[in-house]
């Protein structure tokens, strides 16, 4: 449904219509499209797995897993539904994004007083709250504290060394 690889050849700072319809190169970096995610997830229950690789000498990877994943229709701004979390992280980075509507720089649906998809630090479409705990559609190769990041809201720790991400949905 989504893949972002090292190199940042595809910009994820895109319009609402592009996120709705999908964009990118299926052989490298792409967003399948929120409308497709809605149609697929409305047909039956799915689970979601997000694999994340880090840009370090150990080639570390980790994952987030949810036993339920749905994306609502455009009429409700592609709101995300997530089930219970399991995964290799001790912290559920997507918990802060549960039941949030999708935002892009040209359509602000987040709960912040400003548009989280249109900031200098983490620009790109996502299911922002006020603003983020994880932003996987940021700018690859940005300075260490911006771009594609995981933000632990309790300890305030930030990891912006993400090198690649793959989000996959699977029918239950």
Automatic annotation (TrEMBL):
SMART domains: FBG. Residues 1-172 form the Fibrinogen C-terminal domain. GO terms for cellular component: extracellular space. Gene3D superfamilies: Gamma Fibrinogen, chain A, domain 1 (3.90.215.10). InterPro entries: Fibrinogen-like_C, Fibrinogen_a/b/g_C_1, Fibrinogen_a/b/g_C_dom, Fibrinogen_C-term_domain. This is Tenascin.
